[in-house]
Request: fold
Amino acid sequence: MDASVITIEESRSDDKFLSVFRGGVKYGAGLYASIRQRLNQHNCILLGGYFHSGLVEKAMLLFHELERKREDIDIELYTVIIDGLCKTCQLDKAHAIFEKLSLIGLFPNVITYPTIINGLCLEGLLDETKDMLRKTEHNGYSPNNCTYNVIMQGFLKCGKISEMNTFLKEVSGTDFSFDASTVELLIHVLAKDPSLLNMTPQFHSGS
Reply:
């Protein structure tokens, strides 16, 4: 018999077998995690595709099927669902799913928060947006430049320039800066009503 082969009898007292066994368990666990991660990625891509194609009902059927089967659904997948619902004007459903996350042991991350904030902004719910921003900070996530720009775009789309100025003062101590999308939207708004420039003194100083 090959000396490298470990028999069952030898394994009972052989440290080599224990080492091999533990390695196998670790490899198996890693393989399962990898398969699970790829499956979640596949489901995220599929769900995103359904929403992008306007197949909202099909997306939700798949989502509820995954929930029914108690599949390992991570926060990334829930974020895709929330994003899809927000972009298809179903904010109530998106918000309901967002609110139940903590009940199922999941917590919003740095992508989930801007996603639901963007949904609130799209509906013009700016007070709710600021409440969500405070919740973000309370839960230990510092809003980033992306989050601030999403809110600024919400103010601009709703024509609430005065409220935007107030918010700009509130975030003056941060590293906030307008991104390309916000600048483009701002230029579009000012082109339609140049008088609004007088309500945005920040831009007279070039800041």
